Amino acid sequence: MREAGGLSLLTLTGIVLVLVGLVLVFIPLIIKLGVKLENIHPLLLVWRKVDGFYIGTSPILLIMLLAVYLLIILIRRPL
């Protein structure tokens, strides 16, 4: 199934997953460089400490995942 942009949904999903994987690989390297969580912009990372554990998420990543989810719903919706 080809879309108008030339990329199939599976290819687009694969590209997004590769990019997320690269980010996950580079996070320890960034931490070793001395970047502290307090200095990261709130749109890139929001974190909280709960019972000694750090729980964090990226608002930009959540927005991107929501956009992909809505795109999948709109593509699969019958006309």
> Percent helix among the residues?
40-55%
Q: How many alpha or pi helices? A: 2
Number of domains: 1
Mean pLDDT: 81
Largest sheet: 2 strands, antiparallel
Order of helices and strands: HEEH
Overall morphology = elongated
Question: What is the alpha-carbon Rg in Å?
Answer: 17 Å
Give me the secondary-structure category.
Answer: alpha+beta
Strand order of the largest sheet: 1-2
| N-C termini distance | 17 Å
> Could you tell me the number of beta strands?
2
Low-confidence stretches: none
Strand content of the residues, in percent?
5-15%
List the main descriptive attributes of the protein structure presented here.
alpha+beta, two-stranded antiparallel sheet
Overview of this structure, please?
This protein is an alpha+beta fold. The chain has one domain. It is built from two helices and two strands; from the N terminus they run H-E-E-H. The chain has helices at 9-32, 59-76; strands at 46-50, 53-57. A two-stranded antiparallel sheet has the order 1-2. A hairpin with a 2-residue loop joins strand 1 (46-50) and strand 2. It is elongated and about 50 Å long. It starts with 8 loop residues before the first helix and ends with a helix.
